[in-house]
């Protein structure tokens, strides 16, 4: 790739005491298509997302988005610069409507003027109107338009996941990191989410990285795959090449997750 677009991590290391969660990992995720991040349990996938999104400070290495180094940025600054993520466990505000949960994502749109914040004025009418429209669009994009006024607790699990994804895309991310978005869904819901993600990436055009264990889904969804194992980079490339790669066979497919191959 090496064209300075997309997400690039270089020489990332993270240790938790004696555990090396990431061991000098360098890899790239292109701005086009959808990237899969694969690896057996404990490979370091979530840790990599944590570093990119600012939740984990690495002991070494750098993160660049479209060529810009994020080194000094904390979580909030990264959201404002367009790095948005979801979590393995769905995190929603249960006392707010689906609409209000998704509207929270608009906070990443840099519409707060610092002066207005200092004066406590909040957003102007035009900005609030824009946020409203962006929220409606995000809900429509994931097929939740008719559920906007429902409470999260009323929704089945797959739809709760979609609320989280809508909230993420409401921030117009440059980089969208999805940590096992299909976990806990049946096959029908997974295939529906797959179509949604392809549509979201195609129409909004961000760098999208999806952690996913199901190889069949990865093959259908992803145009590029990065494989980690034991905190180390193993391989990267198109899904079919990755599946056939002996290094990947020896690590990822040798593990419990081979059942999905
Ligand atoms: N906060 C933490 N404290 C201590 N060890 C941690 C912490 N977070 C992760 N680890 C360890 O770091 C390693 C990488 O974990 P990580 O969660 O990044 O892997 P993963 O590939 O996302 O795994 P999974 O597929 O099971 O979610 C594991 O050995 C894990 O136990």
TrEMBL record:
Keyword Flavoprotein: no
Ribosomal protein found in the keyword field: no
Domain called ABC transporter: residue spans: 7-255
Top-level taxon in the UniProt lineage: Bacteria
Keywords linked to the UniProt accession: ATP-binding, Nucleotide-binding, Transport
Signal peptide limits: none
Xref: InterPro entries: AAA+_ATPase, ABC_AA/LPS_Transport, ABC_transporter-like_ATP-bd, BCA_ABC_TP_C, P-loop_NTPase
GO molecular function ontology, one term from the record: ATP binding
PANTHER family with a match to the protein in the record: ABC TRANSPORTER ATP-BINDING PROTEIN, CONSERVED COMPONENT OF ABC TRANSPORTER FOR NATURAL AMINO ACIDS-RELATED
Protein name: ABC transporter ATP-binding protein
Species, as recorded: Dactylosporangium maewongense
